[in-house]
């Protein structure tokens, strides 16, 4: 398309994120025109269409058939990401998908296959994931340092991220929340897709996963609300991933250890403990039994006065749509990587044994279906539970 043409976009799904985030920044983008909003709840679609002077749709097929859109932002419950992305690609519509790409690896692969197939007919088709945490300055700096090899051979990563406190009222605020049938999981599926993506963005997908997930330990829910996982990578690095929605005050502490030192990110501060020489070389060669490597404490300067968040991801996406290609914050095809880690953690926990990656994706999908079919959980939805979702985004 020509640079002078505005990208015609629609938003499918007008829940908290669709209605309170996506629809707002779309208004601020000069190269984008909002030509439709779509939600199964007609009142919602009508309300936002009137408010933003656009057209209401109640079914995504109808939207795709009638609106003449170039691109779609998908912000519906997780299971519906798969059919909507597939249908969009079939029609040559560019897709920006909310996290997670899917609930399980098989569905994610279906979306990726549909994209690859569609690219034969539409070679300039763009597929982006809304992994806005990649835009946060501290994480960008960690990526720069890890990719740049500043730490040399990595040996251990420990990420304690328990700053995800959610009350029972939060879980009671929506009928699909924290159910196997509605959401497909708990903290790993809802709060942590960003963290799982950041982990693989920095270190790759582990080769082996040992997961320990507690189901409804602190909340009246049927999915996991506390997870501890252990990862092994083929390069010898090990990882720990510790998350819960039941800890207050929570912690967000990220330790990355390599032969040349240790990075610690916590409380808006990034510290490098820089080794004067390789600790691996030192431990092999030193004649002293207990002598540590000489280490220098350095606070790494990080420029936090930069644009971050959903809008930055969207700007890159729409620029790529206009230019017939370009660098995205996160390619849609990368969405399967963090999902692989999350599914692997749960499969390991269900089977009470370490899993090798890739694991049997059919086994995990069947387990999910079984959990849905045998669920005896009765969901209590309390309409008085209000949630301001601006509080849920990481400010790192």
TrEMBL record:
Domain GFO/IDH/MocA-like oxidoreductase residue range list: 139-263
Pfam family, one: GFO_IDH_MocA_C3
TM ranges: none
Residues covered by the Gfo/Idh/MocA-like oxidoreductase N-terminal domain: 7-119
InterPro entries, A to Z: Gfo/Idh/MocA-like_OxRdtase_N (IPR000683), Gfo/Idh/MocA_Oxidoreductase (IPR052515), GFO_IDH_MocA-like_dom (IPR055170), NAD(P)-bd_dom_sf (IPR036291)
Matches recorded under SUPFAM superfamilies: Glyceraldehyde-3-phosphate dehydrogenase-like, C-terminal domain, NAD(P)-binding Rossmann-fold domains
PANTHER family cross-referenced by the UniProt entry: D-GLUCOSIDE 3-DEHYDROGENASE, UDP-N-ACETYL-2-AMINO-2-DEOXY-D-GLUCURONATE OXIDASE
Protein name: Gfo/Idh/MocA family protein
Organism: Paenibacillus aestuarii
């Amino acid at each position: 398309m020509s640079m002078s043409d505005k990208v015609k976009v629609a938003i499918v799904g007008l829940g908290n994120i669709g209605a309170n985030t996506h629809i707002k920044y779309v208004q601020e983008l000069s190269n984008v025109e909002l030509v439709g909003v779509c939600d199964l709840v007609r009142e919602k679609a009508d309300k936002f269409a009137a408010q933003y002077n656009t057209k209401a749709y109640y079914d995504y097929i109808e939207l795709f058939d009638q609106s003449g859109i170039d691109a779609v932002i998908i912000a519906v419950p997780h299971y519906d990401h798969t059919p909507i992305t597939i249908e969009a690609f079939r029609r040559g519509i560019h897709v920006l998908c909310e996290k997670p790409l899917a609930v399980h690896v098989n569905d994610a692969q279906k979306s990726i296959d549909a994209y690859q197939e569609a690219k034969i007919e539409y070679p300039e088709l763009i597929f982006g994931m809304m992994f806005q945490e990649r835009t946060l300055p501290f994480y960008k700096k960690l990526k720069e340092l890890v990719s740049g090899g500043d730490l040399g051979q990595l040996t251990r990563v420990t990420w304690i991220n328990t700053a995800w406190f959610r009350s029972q009222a939060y879980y009671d605020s929506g009928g699909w929340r924290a159910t196997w049938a509605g959401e497909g999981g708990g903290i790993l599926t809802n709060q942590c897709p960003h963290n799982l993506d950041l982990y693989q963005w920095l270190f790759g997908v582990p080769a082996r996963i040992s997961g320990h997930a507690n189901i409804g330990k602190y909340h009246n829910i049927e999915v996991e609300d506390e997870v501890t996982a252990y990862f092994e990578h083929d390069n010898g690095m090990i990882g720990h991933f510790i998350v819960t929605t039941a800890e207050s005050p929570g912690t967000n502490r990220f330790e990355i250890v390599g032969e040349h030192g240790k990075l610690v990110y916590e409380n808006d501060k990034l510290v490098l403990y820089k080794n004067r020489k390789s600790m691996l070389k030192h431990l092999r060669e030193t004649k002293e039994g207990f002598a540590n490597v000489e280490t220098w404490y350095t606070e790494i300067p990080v420029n936090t006065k930069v644009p971050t968040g959903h809008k930055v991801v969207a700007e890159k996406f729409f620029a790529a749509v206009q230019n017939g290609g370009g660098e995205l914050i996160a390619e849609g095809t990368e969405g399967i990587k963090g999902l692989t880690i999350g599914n692997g953690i749960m499969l390991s926990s269900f089977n009470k044994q370490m899993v090798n990656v890739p694991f049997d994706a059919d086994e995990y999908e069947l387990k999910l279906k079984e959990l849905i079919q045998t669920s005896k959980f009765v969901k209590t939805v309390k309409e008085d539970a209000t949630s301001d979702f601006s509080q849920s985004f990481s400010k790192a």
